[in-house]
TrEMBL record:
Coiled coil region boundaries: none
SUPFAM superfamilies per record: Copper amine oxidase, domain N (SSF55383), Metallo-dependent phosphatases (SSF56300)
Domain Copper amine oxidase-like N-terminal: 31-100
First and last residue of the signal peptide: 1-25
InterPro entries in alphabetical order: Cu_amine_oxidase-like_N, Mao_N_sf, Metallo-depent_PP-like
Protein name: Stalk domain-containing protein
Length: 448
């Protein structure tokens, strides 16, 4: 049974199913179903076959048919006092039905927290489809701002930004150019902070690598200590501001040790990795941020450090581990006729060792770098690689592929519940800034 997941407007999903859309005038006491369900920390879906709106709150479900008083709440058939109906693209229910839903779901699984993640907001010089401002500062502020606003509407209090927030890539670690670009991005991020969402930056290759042409005419991309130092100069105040963390997230950060970083000599590390790879705990979950382009060992994760870090988190009783890095472990081959290798898998053995750490700890890995959205379970395992390098940079797929999400600006929002359930929603909108769509939803424990 094919389902169309609801985002901005239910009517768009119904129209996509080929069914007629009817709208009626709203009555004064009627309630938008979406707002009601989101207050209960739930999600909505549309079942085209039965013309039903599906409600999921915690582990409990309900089903409400358009233009019908027949409904199901937590597995029980019920009669409503009034048929749900559409008005201006929103599904409305009566005040009595709203009260019935609230009562039924009030003991549902409690939401502990939500976070969102995306990467790659930098643009290319002379990009035709961005504003003069964004061509000057080389950040897609239109996409980034829209996403941040929608993330807040999804109750996210944390945003993990998976690298390549700026163009960078100077030929000589030019601190003046980098500082100028960082300043603009930090201005955008400051608004996100002040609106109640903590931004955790993840270093990408555009931040830490130089790009130049060598004497043989070959393009070289190489991380430098100078660029790592410039990263710290621009990001150290938010990695991690304990006072601000508590103000936004409601309690003190735990499991945070500024000295807990990959040490020189470990994982072929040759430079100080403070505030490039770091970790912390929050409400029973562990968060690890890794630098996938350390100076002297580009395109490699700090695998031994991460293994130890996740072991310690498990010993502290953390239920979940979420890992964030810029480069994906394995490239998404959206064009099988032209296969590429541009993630950690450029060193296949090292990528496999890294992925074994993710799998062995039942962790989830979120990344960017490839400017596309994709979810996979590499190497036949259960662990997920969630690729969201779709935060405003030019699309990896330069032309349609047959998969619409390959050319969408996309992010994921993750909800963690008291029972231990983790629910993930992927959202996106197209290159023409059309309505946001809920493009995939799943519970981490149960898969798709």
């Amino acid at each position: 049974m094919k389902k169309f997941w609801i985002s901005c407007a239910l009517s768009l999903s119904i129209a996509a199913s080929g069914l007629p859309v009817q709208s009626f005038a709203a009555e004064a006491d009627d309630v938008p179903l979406r707002s009601l369900v989101e207050q209960l920390n739930g999600t909505l879906g549309w079942d085209a076959a039965t013309r039903s709106i599906e409600v999921n709150v915690g582990n409990d479900k309900g089903s409400f048919k358009l233009d019908s008083m027949d409904a199901s709440i937590k597995g029980q058939a019920v009669k409503l006092d009034k048929k749900p109906y559409l008005q201006n693209g929103s599904t409305l229910v009566s005040a009595a039905t709203a009260a019935q839903i609230k009562e039924a779901f009030k003991k549902a699984d409690k939401l502990l927290f939500s976070f969102s993640t995306v990467g790659d907001s930098r643009t290319e010089p002379n990009t035709w489809d961005v504003s003069a401002q964004d061509n000057k500062w080389l950040v897609n502020s239109k996409v980034m701002t829209r996403m941040a606003n929608e993330m807040r509407g999804q109750q996210s209090k944390m945003l993990f930004f998976n690298g390549d927030m700026i163009m960078g890539y100077t030929p000589n670690s030019d601190v003046n150019v980098l500082n100028r670009q960082y300043a603009f991005w930090r201005g955008l991020a400051s608004t996100i902070f002040e609106n109640g969402m903590y931004v955790f930056p993840v270093a990408g290759n555009h931040e830490v690598q130089d790009r130049y042409t060598d004497e043989k005419g070959k393009t070289v991309k190489k991380a430098t200590k100078a660029n790592e130092d410039t990263w710290r100069d621009n990001m150290e105040d938010v990695i991690i501001d304990e006072k601000r963390f508590a103000e936004i997230l409601g309690e003190q950060v735990t499991g945070w040790d500024p000295s807990n970083t990959p040490k020189i000599g470990m994982d072929n590390i040759t430079t100080d990795q403070k505030q490039l790879s770091y970790s912390f705990d929050y409400k029973g979950s562990h968060f690890a941020i890794i630098n996938t382009d350390p100076a002297g060992n580009d395109s490699h994760a700090p695998t031994a450090w991460l293994n130890s870090d996740l072991d310690k988190a498990k010993a502290r009783g953390m239920k979940h581990s979420f890992v964030f890095g810029h480069k994906m472990a394995y490239y998404y081959q959206f064009d099988p006729a032209n296969p590429k290798s541009d993630g950690l898998e450029v060193d296949k053995a090292a990528a496999d060792a890294f992925w074994k750490v993710i799998q062995d700890h039942n962790a989830t890995y979120f990344s960017g770098h490839e400017h596309i959205f994709n979810i996979s379970q590499p190497n036949g395992g259960k662990a997920y690689q969630v690729l969201v390098g779709s935060g405003g940079s030019p699309f990896e797929a330069t032309k349609p592929t047959g998969n619409p999400t390959d050319r969408m600006y996309a992010w994921v929002t993750v909800k963690v519940y008291e029972s231990g359930k983790v629910h993930i929603d992927a959202y996106g909108f197209d290159a023409f800034f059309g309505p946001t769509q809920n493009i995939k939803s799943w519970d981490l424990e149960n898969g798709f």
